[in-house]
Amino acid sequence: MHLLILTAFYPIPGITHERMFVHVRNRYYQEHGAKVTVLNFAAKDNYTIDNINVITLQEFEQRDIHYDIVISHSANVRNHYLFLKKYEKEFENLVFFFHGHEASIFAKDYPEPYKFTKDGKIIKRTCQLFYDHFKLNLWRPFYKKLAKKSQYVFVSDYFYKRVQKNMRITPADLSEHCHVIHNSIGSFFENKDYEMKTDKKYDYISIRSNLDAPKYGVDQYIELANKYPEKRFLLIGKGEIFDYFEKPQNMEWINHTLSHEEMLGYLNNARCGIMLTRSDTQGVMTCEMASIGMPIVSSDIEVCHEILSCFPNVALVPNDVEKIELNSIYEKLAMGLPYDKCKKYYAEGTIQKEMKLFQSLITD
C-alpha cells in the first residue's frame, strides 16, 4: 500500500517541527507496512526524515508512480485545491483530514486577534472574512463531486459539527463517508510517565506553538502569574506578546520550539500544566501532557469536555482569571497522584483506526 501525503508544511530535521501531528501518523503507517511518500508543498528540495521520503511538487510532477491512496491534511486553496483540480482524476482513493482552519470562519469560530498582530488589523480581518467564505464556497461543490471516491476524517465531534454548519454540507452530501478519529499523541508520550519528585523548579507550565494567538489564552496565563506572585510560572513558545504585555517577574519565558525530549524534561520539572484555550478542535499538546499523568488545568468549554473527559488528572476552569482558584485546584489534583493513564489517544484508538480505513479502501 503506497500512500501519498499532501501537506502545506512538514517537519525538517534541525529546522522546524511544524505539522508534527502528520509525521506521527506517517511513521506509524510506515512501521506497519505501508510505503509513505510526503508531498510537502513548502519544500524546496527533497529530503528524508525518519526513513520517510519527502518530495517537492516539482519532483512529483517528474515522477510516474501509482499511489493507492492520496491523503490530504489541512487542505488549503493555494496548494491542495489547485493540486487536486489538476491531478485528482489520476487517483482512485482520496482521504481528507480536517484539523481546523480549512473549514473555519475565523471571525466566528476564534476569539478576536490581539491588536498588535497583523491578524488584528481591520483590513486583514475583513480580507480574512472574505477569504473564509470564498474557500468554503469553493470546497463545498468540490468535496461533493469527489465524495464517491473520498473519505472525510474529523479530529473531534465538535469540529465535525462545525464543518457541517460552516460548509452547509451534510453526511449525505459526502456519501456518508465521514469518520471522527482523534489525533494520536504518538508512541513517545504513550511510553512516558510523569515523575512525581518533590523538588520541582516550576509550579506551573504552559507550552504553546504560537503565543500571539489569543485562542491559546496566553494573556490569561500572564494574568494568573500576576495573581499568584509567590508561584513560579514557565511559558514556552515563540511570539511577540512580550513586546506588548509586561512579563511578570515570577515568569520564565523560553522563546523557542521544543523537541518531545526537551518538552518532557520541562514537564517533569513542573507541578502542574496550565493549558487554557478559548477555541480548539482537539488540543493535541494538552492531550500529550495529560497522557503522561501530569496534573493539568484547562478551560471549561465544549470541545474540552469531549476531549479531556477521560483524564482524571485534568480540571476544567472558567475562562475568567478572577474565578480561577489555582491553589485549591492544584491541591485537589495533587491528592490524586499517581493517576491511571487515559489511553484514549494511543495508537490503538486513533492511528490504528486510520490504517483499518485505508486497508478497507484497498480491499473493497
From TrEMBL:
Keywords: Transferase. This is Glycosyltransferase involved in cell wall biosynthesis. It comes from the Bacteria. The keyword Transferase applies. It comes from Muricomes intestini. GO terms for molecular function: transferase activity. The keyword Transferase applies.
